[in-house]
Amino acid sequence: MDWTFRADAPIYTQLYEQLTLSIVAGAYAPGERLPAVRELAVDAGVNPNTVQRALSELERDGLVFSQRTAGRFVTEDAGRIEQERREIARTRAGEFLAAMERLGYDREAALALLEEMKGEET
Amino acid sequence: MDWTFRADAPIYTQLYEQLTLSIVAGAYAPGERLPAVRELAVDAGVNPNTVQRALSELERDGLVFSQRTAGRFVTEDAGRIEQERREIARTRAGEFLAAMERLGYDREAALALLEEMKGEET
DNA sequence: ATTATTGTACTAATCACTTAATACACTAAT
DNA sequence: ATTAGTGTATTAAGTGATTAGTACAATAAT
């Protein structure tokens, strides 16, 4: 993992987002053990507590669970992971549509814009 | 204007965004005079400097200009306003596609999701 | 039993950013 | 000339959250 952080948002937030994406996109398999808090911390060059905080949120989301002395693991519930993936996608889509609406683009127009951008780089 | 602020972002940012939207969506016409800094400040219940800061950014974007003793005005360049509207829309669209891609949705799938959401509220 | 490795809790300090207070500058109108 | 209404600059203080330091707890392996 590259672990490069922007300055415009807390590190723990960025860790949280990147870890979520890693799990949801399948980079960590269901049931797989995650690196230890201290290990991740060294790897990312941050304080263990910062990692801890990010991981707590993943736990709150039900994407990981921890066994006090063995370590942290990705949930074995593949359905939960897929559900999370869908939820994030729907949220993003909703936010996008809302933003476009405020700009005076109705849904047709928003879709048209996306169609028109198909060939381009992001 | 309702001027209600969230707690998760600076006030000046939110002012900036809302004012931008107001201009771009045509709530303020090209050439129209904006309320004075102090007036907006009272209206929104914030410090004049906070308003000043938001307005400075609008100026940087070329959406407003100020005449030192007369007040601030929306640019008369309607093309500039439309351009800004388009830019914001394209940026949002690009961000959306990028986010969806990280989630494993290619463009087809992203569009399909939006189609599927057409009937819903945001 | 001891050690090493894990997650967790608590406290404190740093640190940057936002916001506020205040004073200044300029112009038009009276 | 004076006043009132603009935008602007500068400085200071608050404030809140992030991050770090350090110590604790629990279990598995040796």
How would the blueprint of this fold be written?
2 copies of one chain form a homodimer.
Chain A: H1 11-24, H2 37-44, H3 48-60, E1 64-67, E2 71-74, H4 78-102, H5 107-116
Antiparallel strand pairs in A: 1-2
Helix pairs in contact in A: 1-3, 2-3
The structure holds a DNA duplex (30 and 30 nucleotides).
Largest interface: A-B, 31 and 31 residues
Whole-number average pLDDT of chain A? 93
Estimate what percentage of residues of chain A fall within beta strands: 5-15%
Q: What general outline of chain A do the C-alpha atoms trace?
A: elongated
Number of strands of chain A: 2
Which terms would index this structure?
122 residues; homodimer; DNA-binding; mainly alpha; 5 helices; two-stranded antiparallel ribbon
Give a brief rundown of this model.
The structure is a homodimer of 122-residue chains. Chain A is mostly helical and 122 residues long.
What do you see in this structure?
The structure is a homodimer of 122-residue chains. Chain A has a two-stranded antiparallel sheet. By secondary structure, the first copy, chain A, is mainly alpha-helical. The model of chain A has no long low-confidence stretch (mean pLDDT 93). The first copy, chain A, has 5 helices and 2 strands; from the N terminus they run H-H-H-E-E-H-H. In chain A, strand 1 and strand 2 (71-74) form a beta hairpin. The first copy, chain A, is 57% helix and 7% strand. The interface between A and B is medium-sized, with 31 and 31 residues. Chain B binds a DNA duplex (30 and 30 nucleotides) through helix 3.
